[in-house]
Amino acid sequence: MENLVEERRNAERISTGSYDLNDWLNGGYEKGIVTMVVGPPGSGKSNFSILAACSQAREKKVLFVDSEGGFSVERVRQIVGKENVEKILENILILNPTNFQEQKKCFSKLLDNIKKEEIGLIIVDSIAMLYRLELGDAISGDNEEEIREVNRDVARQMRILVEISRKENIPVLITNQVYGSFLSFEEVKKGVEKEMNIVGGDLFKYWSKCIIELKKDRGRKAVLLKHRSLERKDFTFEIRDEGVFKKGIF
Predict the structure, then answer these.
(1) What is this structure's pTM?
(2) How confident is the model at residue 39 (pLDDT cuts 50, 70, 90)?
(3) Is pLDDT above 70 for 202?
(4) Which of residues 65 and 1 earns the better pLDDT score?
(5) Which 3-state string (H, E, C) describes the chain?
(6) How far, in Å, CA of 111 to CA of 59, rounded?
(7) Where are the domains of the chain?
(8) Which residue, 97, 151, 172, 198, has fewest beta-carbon neighbours within 10 Å?
(9) Among residues 63, 46, 47, 34, which one has the least CA distance to residue 203?
(10) What does the pLDDT look like over 159-187, one tens digit per residue?
(11) Close Cβ partners of 209 (under 8 Å, ≥ 6 residues apart)
(12) Distance between CA 239 and CA 6 in Å, rounded?
């Protein structure tokens, strides 16, 4: 009976590319939903993305929307070894939008590529950077209609991801940025910690059924903020050449 439960659980998830991270997530990233990994620059978001891409690209195609230029061939080589890097890269289809309009076109291409290829994973790293820049321009121009249109556009993009994920049972992994709340001088003196807010707020949190926050203040830590079947918990980790490992495990 236990073996049947384990087989069913694994069939509903894909590997993160890390044994320790798989164990923490009770098997890996879930199929049929959007998982969002959030955190400040340098916290490991792109590493999580590339690690998952390398794992799935061993057997299936991966669609990787790289809006931050974080995808690294050298990092792929470190993870999979130089003898495997060409095969892995052949299965990773990279889209490189440089502005929000190009990102919108990328999401149209996602629908086309899903029909042509056997896709095992969709990654967007990051979903909000170009949106944030576009929104900032609209706000600085004090154009309320343009602000609403930018928000509608990114909501459409999230709906496309959710629709693909549900209908095709494909896991979707997106990354997002965070920003700290403003603290007064008195709060700083008292040692009050900044509250971290996700860029786009409820707009992205609503569509994401799993949310993982990465922190790097006192060593690297992942916090499971939202999940359909798991409670909130922490995972202290290290990033090595071969991937992500639970801290202290060798």
Answers:
(1) 0.87
(2) very high
(3) yes
(4) 65
(5) CHHHHHHHHHHCEECCCCHHHHHHCCCCEECCCEEEEECCCCCCHHHHHHHHHHHHCCCCEEEEEECCCCCCHHHHHHHHCCCCHHHHHHCEEEECCCCHHHHHHHHHHHHHHHHHCCEEEEEEECCCHHHHHHHHHHHHCCCHHHHHHHHHHHHHHHHHHHHHHHHHCCCEEEEECEEECCCCHHHHHCCCCCCEEECCCHHHHHHCCEEEEEECECECEEEEEECCCCCCCEEEEEEECCEEEECCCC
(6) 21
(7) 18-246
(8) 151
(9) 34
(10) 999 999 999 999 999 999 887 655 444 54
(11) 30, 33, 34, 35, 226, 227, 228
(12) 28
Residue bearing tokens 């790289």: 66
